[in-house]
Amino acid sequence: MQISNPVLKGFYADPSMIRVGDTYYIANSTFEWFPGVQLHQSKDMVHWQVLPAALNTTTLIDMRGNPASGGIWAPDLSYSEGKFWLVYTDVKVVNGAFKDCTNYLTIAEDINGPWSTPVKLNGVGFDASLFHDDDGRKYLVQQTWDHREYRHAFNGITLTEFDPSAMKLMPQTARTLWPGDKYKVVEGPHLYRKDGYYYLFAAEGGTSYPHREVVARSMTLDERSFVDMPNNPFITNFDTPESYLQKQGHGALVDTPSGEWYYASLCGRPWHHDTEPAGDPRGWCTLGRETSLQKVDWDDDGWPFVMGGHGGTRFVEAPKDAIETVPIPSTNDQHDEFDSETLDPAWNTLRVPFTETMGTVGNGKLVLRGQGSLCNHFDLSLIARRWQAFDFNAETAVSFDARDYQSMAGLVNYYNDQNWSWIFVTRDEEKGRVIEVAQNDRNHYTSFLRNAAVAVPEEVEKVWLRTKVRTSTYTYEYSFDGAEWIPIPVTLDAKILSDDYVVQTYGGFFTGAFVGLAAVDYAGYGQEATFDHFDYRELGDE
Asked: Quick check: 102 and 123 in contact, CB under 8 A?
């Protein structure tokens, strides 16, 4: 078997990968999307099964009001003493001198939960991981934040001993293991023990095209005792601009039962407009940061290296002892008739879970109760799923008797509260119910149809809406019968829904594009929209 990268397509960033027996697990960042910390499992590293997300209650994570790309950063999954340990960060401030965050720990005997009431650890810095040493001692390893404007904000990797009997850290033990090097932005640390050494893997260079993973090691966990690997970086694509995969770095090391080694990394797959040169801009990653796997070996001096070169490869040999795994779901396509009283696991909401405040689902319909605008951080009725292919179609049908222009319901393509677009039903003072297409680009809102908004005939109860995404551009269509589709004469630039576009003006650029359903009634009257299906069909990655 061969691993085809990325193994997790679409927004699956910051993979934390472990093995328990013959089974591999990956935990990924979810930022402001709910539920928090997506989990997958596999026995062959080729096919991955979706597991229930770990943080599925507001007891485990409350992100109401969190900024875009705040929330869950770089969770760390580990296994010790017959239990799964999950450390995660809730980031409350993204832009500016401060990164206010809280690190939590929750534990479960089964990967499917239930997960224990979280224990607050500290707020020293994000990207915290828990290291279980061979002697039974435990340590929290983390990025360290420095708000002072005359110092670099990423102030090395801090280690603090954790007391499992008291379930709290021992601050007096805190020390800097490694300050990082000239590439700075040192983050995402993980510690491993092998052949008498402690190996520290850490990301550097920022999580864009200069991103890289480096390695240092020491015989002890003493202050600043770690020595850089002579042939750093361990993995990067900064100097491999032609590679299919880009941005590889932040991730985790894992061994197989037979002693092979692999590294799970975030990655990106950029595309260019036909009018753009291949190198500048470097490209637009609308699918966000995905998860790749590379095979690892060790040199005669005990240092790790990526087989095939530090740029990695698209196709990788699977483990020799792999046990073939049936992927669940077997395809990324999704068709939802909303028959179940719970949302399909592919759906996500923003910051808070789907409750009756937002709407109801079941008996063949999804009812969304209009709340705030798509810019709202607190009260928003939206469900969405990841873009997982460059080319796809998505459609729905909505029944919505809009009261006025302040009430809207439709199909949305969404990156964050500042960058999104949608096709929706609303009401015009002269035309009555109409179909409009609008875009929010860095919080600059544009109604494309305006006086040419499409009037909905009086006798039409249900309006079909569709989006066609074609890598660099996407469009919207509508239908009054579900058979004859009429294109809206507006072609939108998909780069506006990419990490690489958002980073130009905003400090949180860590997620990826989503497609979904939304209802807005910012007048505060809670007008309801009824959706009778949703269909997402991929056309391939190339």
From this structure: yes
